[in-house]
């Protein structure tokens, strides 16, 4: 079973290229499409036509809010660029400007990462691509797949917004047998540990 699992992982790797290692978040801005949801610490440039004093770069806070000139704090987290642009336009149009022409540009996005340890060939951080979800099996593949000493036992540690840690156990053989039911979506900050098999 271990040998067949090992070769299946090699096939998966060819489908889901390795994403391990941090990348500068500004280098791949052009790859982000219209479905990208704004996240805490993202940096935006706001330009208002014919109003140079209102041009600014803003960083979303941890709760997803941004401090805009004249308007003050407003929540943009979870919105697409288009939705945020429309929201800011409405706010300026409501009380401050007549028919404002707003341009909103994403300058830097916050990378989402998970961390893989134990019996994988390339342990360390794995970057989740913008606008995409990654499953547990895809993250392990991105970490170079399991080593020959790996068991199928995988420990997942997840920390919620309040700092509470939850540990769950998953089995890779179960994922291969029924991925639709057993392969789970990985979240930013998750820590994955692949155990060593007993010989």
Briefly say what this structure is.
The protein is an alpha+beta fold. Helices cover 23% and strands 32% of the residues.
In what range is the share of β-strand residues?
Answer: 25-35%
Number of helical stretches of at least 4 residues:
5
Share in helix: 10-25%
In round numbers, the mean pLDDT is 86
The string of secondary-structure elements, in order, is HEEEEHEEEEHEEHHEE
Question: Class by helix and strand content?
Answer: alpha+beta
What characteristic shape results from the CA principal axes? elongated
Main pleated-sheet profile: 5 strands, mixed
What would you report as the Rg, rounded to the nearest angstrom? 21 Å
The strands making up the biggest β-sheet line up spatially as 7-6-12-9-10
The N- to C-terminal Cα distance equals: 14 Å
Low-confidence spans: 1-24
Beta strands, count: 12
Explain the overall architecture.
By secondary structure, the chain is of the alpha+beta class. It has five helices and twelve strands. The model is unreliable at 1-24 (pLDDT under 50).
SSE map:
Elements: H1 2-15, E1 43-48, E2 56-59, E3 65-68, E4 72-75, H2 81-95, E5 102-108, E6 112-118, E7 124-128, E8 134-135, H3 136-142, E9 150-159, E10 165-171, H4 172-177, H5 179-182, E11 185-186, E12 191-196
Parallel strand pairs: 6-12
Antiparallel strand pairs: 1-2, 1-5, 3-4, 6-7, 8-11, 9-10, 9-12
């Amino acid at each position: 079973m271990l040998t067949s699992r090992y070769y299946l992982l090699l096939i998966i790797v060819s489908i889901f290229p390795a994403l391990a290692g941090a990348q500068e978040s500004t280098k791949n801005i052009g790859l982000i499409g219209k479905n990208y949801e704004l996240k805490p610490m993202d940096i935006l440039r706001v330009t208002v036509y014919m109003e140079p004093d209102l041009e600014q770069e803003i960083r979303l806070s941890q709760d997803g809010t941004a401090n805009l000139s004249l308007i003050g704090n407003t929540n943009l987290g979870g919105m697409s660029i288009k939705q945020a642009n429309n929201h800011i336009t409405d706010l300026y149009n409501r009380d401050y400007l007549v028919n404002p022409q707003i341009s909103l540009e994403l300058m830097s996005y916050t990378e989402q990462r998970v961390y893989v340890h134990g019996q994988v060939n390339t342990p360390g951080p794995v970057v989740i691509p913008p606008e995409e979800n990654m499953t547990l099996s895809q993250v392990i593949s991105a970490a170079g797949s399991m080593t020959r000493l790996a068991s199928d036992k995988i420990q997942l540690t997840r920390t919620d917004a309040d700092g509470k840690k939850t540990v769950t156990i998953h089995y890779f053989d179960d994922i291969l047998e029924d991925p639709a039911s057993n392969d789970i979506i990985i979240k930013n900050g998750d820590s994955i540990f692949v155990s060593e098999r007993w010989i």
